[in-house]
Amino acid sequence: MSNSSAQISTAQIKALRERTGAGVIECKKALMEAGGDPEKAVQILRDKGREIAAHKAGRAAHQGLIGSYVHSGRIGVLVEVNCETDFVAKTDQFKTLVQELSLQIASMNPRYVTREEVPPEQIGKALEQLHEEIGGVDDESAQPMQQAHMETFYKERVLLDQPYIKDTARTVQDLLTDTVSSLRENIVIRRFIRFVLGEET
Question: Does the domain made of 63-114+158-196 have the CATH classification 3.30.450.40?
């Protein structure tokens, strides 16, 4: 049962905007649909964001920014993030996304943007290591253990799977989806590189 618009406060809308980056109207509608429950409203916005992102995923994204971040002169990051138009690339929200991604990469040291980029041999090695650890466990018991092991593997190595450092209840994919939903353009994390002082490449 939805609350009336009069029961949704400005403070609730502001808090939801800060969490999701969604517009005022979208936040108000989500809160009304959720009966004022902020967690349900976040989920509503996230579900709608995924739908929007899915619709825009195939659209060409050749504009954007290359962001950079240097931490204490010892860790450096370059990341290319693409969008559809130069107009969106110049918005504060897009610039903030690029900066947040730079900080995430510097802090969490992902190796790949997506799961699809992980070489099959690395996946094979991870599964071999698990099989050595669990020994003679039957296949039925091993399957959920294997799934959990690979989820941890991806969270450590894949940028989009990592918990977002400023809100670990969300992933980097959630951050990206929320931004796509807000800006209404396809956004792609194209590539990144991370340097560590003195580290062999």
Answer: no
